[in-house]
Design brief:
Largest sheet: 5 strands, parallel
Shape: globular
Strand order of the largest sheet: 3-2-1-4-5
CATH superfamily: HUPs
Distance between the termini: 31 Å
CATH architecture: 3-Layer(aba) Sandwich
Number of strands: 5
CATH class: Alpha Beta
Number of helices: 5
CATH topology: Rossmann fold
Order of helices and strands: EHEHEHEHHE
Number of domains: 1
Radius of gyration: 15 Å
């Protein structure tokens, strides 16, 4: 495999139009025979900040259906759908490691200033923690 070969590409999805574009890019850069995985993270507040409520199996199933519906409505049928729960930045990186992803392609919403400070940047966290290259698509 060459240095540019991308057998496994992970694309985080938040149901935005930017996510749809990231999926298109992910499908363009994956090698023939490779796999693109879409992941949506059900955000759960960290233990200790608020009462920690685990996501129920019903919520996970509903999340899976929503992701599959999003992919279908976007006309994307050749992508594997993954639902996970937790902190988005950490869970994206964790799944990328489990899948042995060669690349993560993700949108950035371009928040700056106070919004960036308060909300943080999932893309920034993924870039910092990922074991593989991360392609961040600017808005």
């Amino acid at each position: 495999m060459t240095a540019l070969a991308r057998q496994t590409v992970l694309v985080p999805v938040d149901y935005s139009t930017e996510s749809q574009h990231a999926l298109v890019v992910g499908r363009e850069v994956v090698t023939p025979g490779g796999v693109v995985h879409a992941v949506h993270v059900l955000h759960v507040a960290p233990v200790g900040t608020v009462p920690h409520l685990a996501t129920s199996p019903e919520q996970m199933a509903r999340g899976q259906q929503e992701l599959e519906q999003f992919l279908s409505e976007a006309g994307i049928s050749d992508v594997k759908a993954n639902i996970v729960e937790g902190d988005p930045g950490h869970e994206i990186v964790k799944l990328a490691e489990q899948l042995h992803a060669d690349l993560i392609v993700m949108p950035s919403h371009g928040r700056t200033g106070l919004a960036h400070i308060l909300i943080g940047s999932v893309a920034e966290r993924v870039v910092r923690l990922a074991h593989c290259p991360v392609l961040v698509l600017r808005k």
